Amino acid sequence: MNYIANMVQPKSNPKIISSGPSSRDSADQLTRALGWFSIGLGLMEIFGANRMSHALGMPRAEGLIRAYGVREIGAGVMTLSTEKQAGLVSRVAGDALDIATLATAIRPDNPKRGNAALALGLVLGVTALDIIATQAVSRRNARRSPGRNYSDRSGFPARPRAAAPAGNSASQI
User: Fold this and answer.
1) Is the per-residue pLDDT at 13 higher than 90?
2) What's the whole-number mean pLDDT along residues 83-93?
3) DSSP element (H, E) containing 6
4) Which residue in 28, 110, 134, 145 has a CA-CA distance of 20 to 30 Å to 79?
5) Distance between CA 46 and CA 10 in Å, rounded?
6) 125, burial (CB in 10 Å: exposed 0-12, middle 13-18, buried 19+)
7) Distance between CA atoms of 54 and 14, rounded to whole angstroms?
8) Could you tell me which of 44, 33, 32 has the C-alpha nearest to residue 69?
9) Dihedral, CA atoms, 70, 54, 92, 100, nearest 10 degrees?
10) Nearest in space to 55 (alpha carbons), one of 125, 97, 107, 118
11) pLDDT (average), residues 50-69
12) What stretch of H or E contains 165?
């Protein structure tokens, strides 16, 4: 990989001898994977809405599936941006919508309810990953230091008696 990086760099740039370990932890890698997954799923929902609606036994749901695709792409882009937490929260909310929609497809009169049940199971699995990633990003972004305690301070640079004018006792102040 370093060879390719050195090939595309201008000659004036220093050469890359070796690269160190990635600064991304497992939460970053999971978040990134979920962002790209969301974009891919959104594109599939937009361009394959007809096939998806028929495979799930939900005829005339193409418009809804396309709208969900746009939502997925937006959540994916936000998850890949600096607003990871907002993107992940929007993914969890979108998963709740997907679960509610797929639950309506698991009815006795739907001949494709097996496909809908399989899709529901997959969405539940991805929802678990979304929740895990959201919690990990929240923990990492939480304040690490406890709040400061200033209860032992008076606000005076020295003791209150030292702040009294010369000749006056502290009891007269």
Assistant:
1) no
2) 92
3) helix 2-8
4) 145
5) 40
6) exposed
7) 56
8) 44
9) 120
10) 118
11) 94
12) none
- CA atoms 83, 28, 65, 97: torsion sign: negative
> Residue 36 above 90 pLDDT?
yes
Q: What type of residue sits at position 79?
A: T
Inter-residue contact 53 to 65 (CB < 8 Å): yes
Please state the length of the chain: 173
Share of the chain above pLDDT 70, in %: 76
Tokens standing for 62? 């193409």
- Residue labelled with tokens 């939480």: 142
Both tokens assigned to 41: 């799923």
The reported pLDDT for the residue numbered 21 is 61
Largest CA distance in the chain: 98
Please, which pLDDT band fits residue 4 given cuts at 50, 70 and 90?
low
Position 26, amino acid: S
